[in-house]
């Protein structure tokens, strides 16, 4: 949607609410249709079961099954390449966490990982985690986390944590809380691979938002809330944008930045490869 229309909608609460109600009604109709189609198809659309439309929508904003599979498959291959930039081979990492795994769109494509490796997925979405436990239990262990840290994992549990499309939704304080928590559960020299809304996505922002983002390096935009929030996730889950300069400066408390790759995740989001900092006694 052109930024002028978006700006007009946002600047007028009554219009924005009406727009939200119309969008919500259309969304419910499409959801019903998609549920009905899935039930009629009732065929194996892939080697692993396909999550129901609402769970697909929550992670991709679409009900489309082919898109769900393709984006997840591609994301998994891109994570392998990004991990190699940090000297890790995902195929033989002993312990990996998909943080904010949703209904397993990405982790399902790592089903051929080494049998002795410990793979986990974690998310706040209890419905998605229940589905993953039931249908993707052969791929990984799954756990529901609270929307604020800590998670139930011990310190130094993982060699690699990846998080696709999470830091694109958190406000600034939660972003820092979770960066600290992910550093806690990573082992020495462990890698975090996270995605962000970089310059490619900034083009769609209205001028005032762009000015704020350029000045601060970070922007958190609140859209619909409550029932009109189509994904059904809590209101804190909105849209965040970053500049590379901000990430290099502000994500470095616990991490060294190994690489920043523009549009490295499905040609849309930027990817950041970070290595957990190791503090020597002499540093204290
Ligand atoms: C856009 S979806 C991406 C899901 C998955 N990474 C993928 O690429 O398919 C964002 C996910 O972040 C999850 N999420 C939001 N806040 C979270 C938090 N504090 N901890 C864990 N997961 C969170 C949501 O429930 C949702 O599943």
Q: Please bin the fraction of helical residues.
A: 25-40%
Strand order of the largest sheet: 3-2-1-4-5-9-8
Strand content: 15-25%
Number of domains: 1
Radius of gyration, CA atoms, in whole angstroms? 19 Å
Category from helices, strands and their pairing: alpha/beta
CATH superfamily: Vaccinia Virus protein VP39
Q: What is the end-to-end distance?
A: 51 Å
- Element pattern in H and E: HHHHEEHEEHEHHEEHEE
Total of helices: 9
Low-confidence stretches: none
CATH topology value: Rossmann fold
The CATH class is: Alpha Beta
The average pLDDT score comes to 92
Dominant shape:
globular
Name every ligand kind in the structure.
Answer: S-adenosylmethionine
Count of strand segments:
9
Pfam families: Methyltransf_25
GO molecular function: methyltransferase activity
Protein name: SAM-dependent methyltransferase
Keywords: Methyltransferase, Transferase
């Amino acid at each position: 949607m052109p930024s002028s229309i978006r700006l007009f909608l946002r600047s007028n609460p009554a219009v924005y609410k009406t727009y939200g109600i119309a969008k919500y009604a259309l969304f419910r109709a499409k959801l019903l249709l998609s549920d009905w189609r899935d039930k009629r198809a009732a065929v194996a659309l892939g080697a692993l079961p396909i999550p129901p439309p609402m769970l697909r929508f929550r992670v991709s904003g679409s009900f489309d099954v082919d898109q769900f599979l393709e984006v997840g498959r591609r994301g998994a291959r891109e994570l392998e390449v990004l991990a190699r930039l940090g000297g890790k081979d995902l195929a033989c990492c002993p312990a990996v966490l998909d943080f904010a795994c949703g209904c397993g769109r990405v982790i399902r494509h790592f089903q051929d990982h080494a049998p002795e490796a410990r793979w986990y997925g974690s998310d706040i979405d209890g419905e998605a985690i229940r589905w993953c436990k039931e249908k993707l239990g052969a791929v990984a262990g799954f756990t529901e986390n609270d929307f604020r840290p800590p998670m139930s994992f011990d310190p130094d549990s993982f060699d690699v944590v990846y998080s696709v499309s999470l830091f694109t939704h958190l406000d600034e304080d939660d972003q820092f809380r979770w960066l600290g928590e992910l550093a806690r559960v990573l082992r020495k020299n462990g890698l975090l691979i996270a995605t962000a809304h970089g310059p490619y996505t900034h083009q769609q922002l209205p001028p005032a938002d762009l000015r704020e983002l350029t000045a601060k390096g970070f922007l958190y935009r609140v859209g619909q809330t409550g029932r009109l929030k189509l994904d059904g996730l809590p209101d804190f889950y909105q849209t965040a944008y970053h500049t590379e300069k901000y990430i290099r400066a502000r994500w470095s408390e616990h991490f060294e930045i190994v690489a920043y790759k523009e549009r490295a995740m499905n040609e849309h989001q930027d990817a950041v490869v970070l290595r957990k900092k190791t503090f020597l006694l002499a540093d204290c």
